[in-house]
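Is this the right way to post structure tokens for a design question? Let me know if I should format differently. Anyway, here goes:
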């Protein structure tokens, strides 16, 4: 089977979302007995997350590929220059680019823009694929059982403020959740960086995809940043209060907020964020509201995005 090369980035400042979604491609490729080589610009947090396989650690985003590669490539980057992308397109058999922000007029290949919303006019030579059906999810999310029961009362709340929680929102969200649901069991997923203990909740650090999926499936409500976790939350039919914490989340926050699967609370820096989070949590108190949200999420994300791209890269129609 043809080798797959993944060009990406991730660290405490930029987050770890690129590594998370690229790992879905790496897993499904390895399951087909293909070799995967990573080229990653990352720090120690990225190294802790990616510790298996052939990984080349370096800054690559401004260094063109100059040798022909008998391989396929995936590029997931907010900083790779257009000349570098052209050099990858010229030297690989096929290329997939992951895009969240309509960042560039991509060269020949396939662009996956998985955020919800209508297709938009784009420049460049690449073909574009639109919508959550193309989002790569990690293996634990490929076959999630349908949520057949929504609890009468909110008994468990899950908080996910991104892999690095740059704005230290987790303790604040725990307090807000506790104020609205004083008897609920609150779980917070935190990143690999050292943190003080967070009072009033059960904390989880460096979970794998199976553990994250189990937490999502066993929770009644979530508070989440509007990053890659939104697709996993939708897949698990978990009603979620959504907060935008970075500029590259603008479209995902806007479009997910139009669905009843998510309830928008605003941007992390807004003056009245706490009040809006509490109001949205209160709105999810009603069992019927949560039932409606749960029924929508899994219809939007079916977990097969990585497999669809595998078929394209192997020359099959998508």
């Amino acid at each position: 089977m043809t080798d797959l090369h993944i060009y990406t980035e991730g660290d405490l400042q930029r987050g770890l979302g690129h590594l998370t979604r690229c790992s879905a491609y790496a897993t499904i490729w390895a399951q087909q007995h293909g070799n995967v080589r990573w080229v990653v610009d990352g720090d120690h947090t990225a190294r802790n997350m990616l510790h298996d396989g052939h990984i080349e650690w370096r800054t690559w985003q401004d260094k063109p590929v100059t040798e022909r590669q008998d391989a396929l490539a995936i590029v997931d980057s907010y900083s790779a220059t257009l000349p570098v992308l052209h050099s990858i397109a010229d030297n690989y058999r096929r290329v997939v680019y992951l895009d969240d922000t309509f960042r560039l007029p991509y060269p020949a290949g396939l662009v996956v823009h998985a955020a919800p919303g209508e297709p938009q006019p784009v420049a460049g030579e690449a073909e574009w694929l639109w919508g959550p059906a193309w989002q790569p999810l990690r293996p634990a999310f490929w076959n999630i059982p349908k949520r057949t029961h929504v609890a009468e009362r909110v008994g468990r709340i899950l908080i996910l403020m991104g892999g690095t929680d740059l704005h230290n929102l987790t303790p604040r969200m725990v307090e807000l959740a506790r104020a609205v649901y004083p008897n609920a069991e609150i779980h917070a997923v935190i990143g690999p960086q050292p943190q003080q203990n967070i009072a009033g909740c059960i904390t989880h650090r460096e979970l794998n995809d199976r553990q994250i999926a189990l937490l999502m499936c066993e929770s009644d409500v979530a508070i989440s940043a509007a990053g890659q976790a939104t697709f996993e939350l939708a897949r698990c039919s978990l009603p979620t209060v959504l907060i935008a914490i970075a500029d590259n989340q603008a479209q995902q926050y806007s479009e997910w907020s139009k669905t009843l699967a998510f309830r928008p609370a605003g941007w992390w820096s807004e003056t009245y964020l706490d009040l809006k989070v509490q109001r949205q949590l209160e709105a999810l108190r009603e069992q019927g509201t949560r039932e409606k949200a749960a029924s929508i999420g899994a219809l939007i994300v079916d977990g097969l995005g990585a497999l669809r791209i595998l078929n394209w890269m192997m020359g099959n129609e998508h």
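Format looks fine. Someone answered above. Worth noting: The CA atoms of residues 84 and 231 lie 29 Å apart. The two ends are 19 Å apart (CA to CA).
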